[in-house]
Automatic annotation (TrEMBL):
It comes from Parapedobacter deserti. Residues 513-556 form the Cationic amino acid transporter C-terminal domain. It holds the Pfam family AA_permease_2. This is Amino acid permease. The chain crosses the membrane at residues 35-57, 63-82, 190-210, 222-242, 254-272, 292-317, 337-360, 385-405, 411-432, 453-470, 490-508, 513-529, 535-553.
Length: 563
């Protein structure tokens, strides 16, 4: 059984399987420009238009450094993705790469985790889109009933606060939520409250993705031009209103405050890997995918860092805990008409991110279905539109229904956990490819830097840095009991143990430094997420294993061929 669980697919097997679809295959229409556009569409979405405000509120102007740090982590990961994409130019992203490097069980786990990255993150994007859309309508004097524009939990919590402490304790947003609870129609004693715009936009985008890759590409390109124009306008227009005194103190809440924005900042970068799911629709995937990944990541990193500095320079960081920070900063300085323009174009910009994620999820399911791990209908290609039709419909329903009823902050951290997990396995997969000699087939390779001694040197420098400059951290650890350390610091302990193991293995096998750096940085960022998110993630993985052993293990084409 163990041999079957970890049986690997060769690069040749995967490519042959993708070609076996014959006339029912996907349409090859994407070039490097289209891929960069799709990557920017995915990355520059709800993160920069929404969650960047919360991150700045918690960490102050120093959050710009966190963007640098996370961007570096993503560059290491993007290089690893690019090598895999040039070696295995088929749909499936990290799921397919894990099948080559680690075997079927790990491939299933990573495919299941990617549902959190694409489907769950799209729930966040849809909810964020709804907030901007409602604000835009209000700018035109159109006000939707509150009970049609929010999650039930927002309204019920605001109403409970109103009952407990009175109207004076509520912010303006909470007052509107409490009013929505009181005004909502009821079935018995249960108020009917849901986020209608979030559900509608998901339906419309799913329909667009269903009708074809050419239509999706054209829509994405147009929306990317609009959103980049808005962001450049905010950067260069807002620069005239920057007050350097707003950058002091630079890190008002210390490194702890900066680190608390890890999930929000990382969520802003999620998406560069989604273009690898379109490999079978690329004209020249082995050449274009690596170029597109690196280009779109570098472009977006620069934009994020600049816009964070501008936002925290225009207004004090304490004013940025709002759902629409780009619009808010112009309202704050009295330029309401500019806030209106940003609000309208933000709706278009966030739509493009929703489109790319809805494009990516069905293609992963399609690839898993080809391997027999999911019901074969997920691999169905529409004869006219040349898209994975059934998988696209299921992905739309899976995003639309939760977006109607759940709060956005419930999903942000959970999305990051699944993504970190995928990124770590992809970086580790490159190390395996080097070890197994598969990298010789790669048309693009991660630049090799011998990490034999550098990984050890990095660990020693980190330990000495903590000893000489981290006495506060050491004192905090000393005050914790053994059980408290296990409860609150277990992930950090795992991080240091993994680094130690990589030192030993890197010395023996002469590991490449850059994939190791990607593993360590992603694992460290992972350790900064809350324990509750980890618990939910583990429950999600447990459900996934039940599905695998209940269906995938029995129907796996690779294992059935080996019998």
């Amino acid at each position: 059984m163990a041999n079957r669980l970890f049986r690997k697919k060769s690069v040749e097997q995967i490519i042959d399987a993708s070609r076996s679809t014959g006339k029912g295959g996907l349409a090859k229409v994407l070039g490097v420009r289209d891929l960069v556009s799709l990557g920017i569409a995915a990355i520059v979405g709800a993160g920069i238009f929404s969650t960047i405000g919360l991150a700045s509120f918690n960490g102050g102007p120093a959050v710009s450094l966190l963007f640098v740090f996370v961007a570096i982590a993503c560059v290491f990961t993007a290089l690893s993705y690019a090598q895999f994409a040039s070696t295995v130019p088929v749909s499936g992203s990290a799921y397919t790469y894990a099948y080559v490097a680690f075997g079927e069980l790990f491939a299933w786990i990573i495919g299941w985790a990617l549902i959190l990255e694409y489907a769950v993150s799209n729930m966040v994007v849809a909810i964020s889109w709804s907030q901007y859309f409602v604000s835009m309508l209000e700018g035109f004097g159109i006000r939707l009933p509150g009970w049609l524009t929010m999650a039930p939990a927002y309204a019920s919590e605001a109403y409970a606060e109103l009952q407990a402490h009175g109207m004076a304790s509520l912010s303006r947003v909470d007052q509107l939520a409490a009013a929505a609870y009181q005004q909502a129609p009821r079935v018995g004693d249960i108020p009917i409250i849901f986020d209608l715009p979030a559900g509608l936009i998901t339906f419309l985008v799913t329909w667009l993705v269903y009708t074809g890759i050419k239509e999706s590409r054209t829509a994405s390109n147009v929306m990317v031009v609009i959103k980049i124009g808005v962001i450049l306008f905010v950067i260069f227009g807002g620069a005239f209103f920057v007050k350097p005194e707003n950058w002091a103190p630079f890190a008002p809440n210390g490194m702890e405050g900066v680190a608390s924005g890890v999930a929000a900042v990382f969520f802003a970068f999620i998406g560069f890997d989604s273009i690898s799911t379109t490999a079978e629709e690329c004209k020249n995937p082995q050449r274009d995918l690596p170029r597109a990944m690196i280009l779109c990541l570098l472009i977006c990193a620069v934009l994020y860092i600049l816009i964070t500095l501008v936002l925290t320079g225009m207004v004090n960081y304490t004013e940025l805990n709002v759902k629409d920070p780009l619009s808010y900063v112009f309202q704050y300085i009295g330029m309401d008409y500019m806030a209106g323009i940003v609000s309208v174009t933000s709706v278009v910009a966030i739509t493009s991110a929703l489109l790319v994620f809805q494009l990516a999820q069905p293609r992963i399911w399609m690839t898993m279905s080809r391997d027999g791990l999911l019901w074969k209908r997920f691999a169905t290609i529409h004869p006219k539109y040349k898209t994975p039709s059934f998988a696209t419909i299921v992905a739309g329903v899976m995003v639309a229904v939760p977006a109607l009823f759940f709060k956005m902050d419930f999903f942000v951290d959970l999305t990051s956990v699944g993504t970190f997990f995928a990124f770590i396995l992809v970086c580790a997969g490159v190390l395996y490819m080097d070890y197994a000699g598969i990298s010789k087939q790669s048309k693009f390779r991660v630049p090799y830097i011998n990490g034999k001694y550098l990984i050890i040197l990095g660990l020693l420098l980190a330990v000495f840095g903590i000893y000489f400059y981290g006495q506060d951290t050491i004192a905090e650890w000393r005050q914790l009991s053994f059980l408290e350390i296990i409860e609150h610091k277990l992930l950090l302990i795992i991080f240091w143990l993994v680094w130690l193991v990589l030192c030993v293995m890197g010395y023996i096998h002469r590991f490449s430094l850059l994939p190791v750096a990607g593993i360590l940085i992603n694992l460290y960022l992972m350790s900064q997420l809350g324990a509750s998110n980890w618990f939910i993630f583990l429950v999600w993985l447990a459900i996934g294993l039940l599905v695998y052993f209940g269906y995938g293990y029995k129907h796996s084409k690779l294992n059935n061929q080996a019998r």
